[in-house]
Every structure is written in structure tokens, then in C-alpha cells.
Amino acid sequence: MNWFPSEKPIYDITKSWEENLEKGPFYSDNYKVLDRKWKPREEWTDFLGVAKIASPLGVPAGPLLNSQWIKFAAEAGFDVVTYKTIRSNPYIGHPVPNVLYIDVPQGQIDKSESGGVLHATNVAPASLEDLAITNSFGMPSKDRQYLYEDIKLANSYIRDGQVMIVSITGTASSAHDFMQDFVDVANIAIESGAKVVEVNYSCPNVCTGEGQIYHNPDEVYRISKTLVDMLQPRGIPLVIKVGVMDDQAKMARLFSRAHEAGVAAIAGINTLSMKITDAATGEPSLGASRLTSGVCGAPIRSAALDWVHSARNIINNNPQLNNMKLIACGGIVQPQHFDDFLQAGADVATCATGLMWDPYIAMKWHNKL
Questions:
Q1: Is 329 part of the annotated catalytic residue set?
Q2: Going from the N-terminus, what domains does the chain have, and what CATH number goes with each?
Q3: Which of the following is catalytic: 203, 296, 329, 351?
Q4: pLDDT (tens digit, 9 = 90+) per residue, 177-188?
Q5: Three-state secondary structure readout of the chain
Q6: Predicted TM-score of the model (pTM)
Q7: Which residue from 110, 226, 280, 296 has the fewest beta carbons nearer than 10 Å?
């Protein structure tokens, strides 16, 4: 059950998003789908009223690019899997490179360091605990016909005890069109048979306005209420994806406004946005058009856990929020990290980078190896 560093990550960071989507996941003949220890059905837990899940392990929006990636993650032991963020129309996203290793001398990155500077490196880490990357994709998306067919196919791979979320975002072309675009992309998810929809308000890797909406609680309410009014009559719960916030009062207001809109769960965090430069020249590692990008992997775990603690305290201290669920993400690269997040108050603990560099991470948790 050993994988990294003797085996390469299942996402090939030297290839484009499109090639990874069409030909991935990439793995050698050494990879085997393992037998899993399943909990008895009576111990499965409710997930937002749409499914009973066998475990609180999941994959966030990001690495599961299409149905084949969804199938891989479900077979690898993840029971809450998220279909990569889709848009209402095809979107190319950013060119290669999309993923770079980075040096993080201090180990963990505090949330107050978001916006700071780190350096890219060509040297792969020696261990998962040192796994630090930056990613910058710009939320690319396939065309509608592809999504209709592929999301339906992805759902066919979901077993009893599992559930798939479809992540969506609006594309900011104008203020007038922005809300309609959220409606359009939500309709794609609905017509494709989505059981749960997540709206991404927190991608740091876009140059337009769709990436930082979570900083505006009233805008979160406005968009979320429109989506809930579409989804709720169909029995589809809405999850919102957010990032780190320094202002606890503003974070509490965000949660309150989300609740008022009918949001069922909040997922966080996304990556930490930082400047990634070449150590020798100081030039942006991803090019002049991408001065910042998302940092993920092991170094953001403390910031993510801090978010979970804060989020759980907000929910516990506001009785009207008691039914709101927390889906946590950030820095889970070892099986025991799932427990850290669950103990901190998450209802579901998810990992992206950890899965890509160690596809056995969930099975190690299930089988307690």
C-alpha cells in the first residue's frame, strides 16, 4: 500500500488539464483496487437528506475531472466525491504549468500569511508531510453536451453508501448576466441528475469576480437564495465553498446569511492565495498574468483546522445554525489527518492533493493500516 514517492502522482503535473481529463488518472500496473472494510449499514450516516454515507471521507472540487476520476475515487474508498467545478459554457482555463512544487521552509502556513511570497522548486518532496504545491487552473470546463453525458455516467459509478456532489460556478461577464449564469449552470447540474450541488465562491485562481464572492455575505445570500429556490423543490441541497477569513464576525455573518438563504452545508477551505516566484529571478513562476495562485498540500493544514474550529464554534453558538453541516478540506496528506478534522468538528473530511499523491490514503484509513 505504499505509493509516493516511489510512484508518481495520479495527476500528471507535466500535462495539461485536458490531457489529464482525457487520459487520466495516471498510474502504473502496481496500483490495485483494494478490498475495503465497510461499516454495517446501520452505522451509515445521513448526508443532507439525500443519501446514507458509509464514511465521512471525501474528495473536494478539484482533482475529479470527469466520470473516470469519480469512478477511481469511489473505488479508492471516498464516499463523498465532488465532480470538478463546471461552468455554463466551455472554458479553456490557464495554460501549463498548472501545478508546481513549492518550498515552504516554515512547514505550516498561518492564514495571516495568505498573500505572501513563496518560491517554486523543481525538487519533489521526500515525504507526504513535505508535500507542498501551488495550483492554477482558472476553473476550466467542458461543453454542455459533454457534461450532460459525463455527469450521468459519473453518477452510475456511485455505490450504495456513497454520494456525488456537482460543483458549479458562475462566469463573470457583467453584473447583469452574472446571476443568470449561475442559474444556467445550475440547470446543467439539475438536468444531468445531480443529487447535491456545491457552488464555488472561493477559487483564488481566476482573474474575474467569481472567485472571492464569499467575502460578501449579502452577495452570498443573493446568489444562494436564487439557487436554493431552484434546487430545493427538486430535493437537491446546496453546499457553498468558501475560503479563509480573518474577521470572525464577518465569518459568522456569512454563515448566518447562508443559513437564511437555505444553504445546507458549508465547505472550506479552498487553497491559500500566495505569490509564487522564482527564487533566483523573483519573476512570477506561472507567468506575468498569474501573479498569485493557490497553495495546497500539507502546509495549509493548520489554517484549515483553524477554519474548522472557528466554523464549528459559530454553529454551536448559534442555535439556528444547528442543522448546517461542515465539509472540511486542506492539508490532509496522511490517513490520520482525516481524524484530526473530524475531531475538530467537520462532518466530512476531504482531501485533494493527498489523493493525487497517495491514492491509497482513504483505504489506509478504512483498514486502519
A1: no
A2: 17-366 (3.20.20.70)
A3: 203
A4: 899 999 999 999
A5: CCCCCCCCCCCCCCCCHHHHHHHCCCCCCCCCCCCCCCCCHHHCEEECCCEEECCCEEECCCCCCCHHHHHHHHHCCCCEEEEEEECCCCECCCCCCCEEEEECCCCCCCHHHCCCEEEEECCCCCCHHHCEEEECCCCCECCHHHHHHHHHHHHHCCCCCCEEEEEECCCCCCHHHHHHHHHHHHHHHHHCCCCEEEEECCCCCCCCHHHCHHHCHHHHHHHHHHHHHHHHHHCCCEEEECCCCCCHHHHHHHHHHHHHHCCCEEEECCCEEEEEECCCCCCECCCCCCCEEEEEEHHHHHHHHHHHHHHHHHHHCCHHHCCCEEEEECCCCCHHHHHHHHHHCCCEEECCHHHHHCCCHHHHHHCCC
A6: 0.96
A7: 280
